[in-house]
Amino acid sequence: MTNPLFYAKILLFGEYGIIEDSQGLTLPYSFYKGTLKFSDNQSDFEKKSNESLQKYSDYLSTLELPKDFKIDVDAFKKDIEKGLFFDSNIPQGYGVGSSGALVAAIFEKYSFIKYIPESISKIQLKDLKKVFGELESYFHGKSSGIDPLICYMNLPILIENKESVDKVSIPKEEAGKGAIFLIDSGSVGETGPMVQIFFEKLKNEGFRKTLKEEFIKYNNACIDSFLNKEMTPFFKNLKNLSKWAYVHFKPMIPTNLYNAWKNGIDTNAYYLKLCGSGGGGYILGFAKDYEKAEKMLEGFNKEVIYRF
């Protein structure tokens, strides 16, 4: 059997808010993917990946995981000696879950108990998210476990709050004029420093207040209206969300997108928001008329991820 592919993920809504108990909505994104493979004579990429896996396996040796989610670290280490590496085209620092896919692939291959994602209960999801948080914290210092969970499940996931997640159905794509799309900022974003900025901002009582009373309200309303396919309230809340981010998340917005971000709000042709922690990588765009938005965003590399 060939090793399964693990897709990237896109956090459609909930960036930073999920740290403060907002809802989140995240989808698998099959354009980018990764899989564990063996190589005899390794290229530089394969060698580097193999060395990284070696270091990661040492970290796994130190973890005390719950018995239902234990990993066969010995088998993993033996395979690393045989030339195991992670063959992935998921860009790092772009907010699409490069480390999440790696963690999901390792768990799928080396966990003692094998799970069928479609059959996993809501309670198991909660436990799995916690375990994935521990497994991924090696890469980011602290992880919610959401990214590996999405990559592992390969299903849309609704983050209900800090503790609870559930599988969810998103409206079927249609060949309409509207689109959700990614814009490549052209630079890499580092999660750590961006999250640090956010925590600094949280020390300010005024920021905490507006985050809870405005950002989380708009964010949750966007998720609700999107899942119910109510596009008028969806775009109304999206505009508020984009405006709020332009004012309060400015350090996280790549500088080459400031003007485009504001232009979208002023013309109502499209709205932009962060995709993950920001600072670089991808930015998310939403437009009722994608052709019009595309012309206005000429010069930027764009990828459509959903049509409506």
TrEMBL record:
Domain GHMP kinase N-terminal: start-end pairs: 84-153
Record has Cytoplasm as a keyword: yes
Classification via SUPFAM superfamilies: GHMP Kinase, C-terminal domain, Ribosomal protein S5 domain 2-like
Metabolic or biological pathway: Isoprenoid biosynthesis; isopentenyl diphosphate biosynthesis via mevalonate pathway; isopentenyl diphosphate from (R)-mevalonate: step 1/3
Keywords annotated in UniProt: ATP-binding, Cytoplasm, Kinase, Lipid biosynthesis, Lipid metabolism, Magnesium, Nucleotide-binding, Transferase
Source organism, top-level taxon: Bacteria
Name of the protein described by the UniProt record: Mevalonate kinase
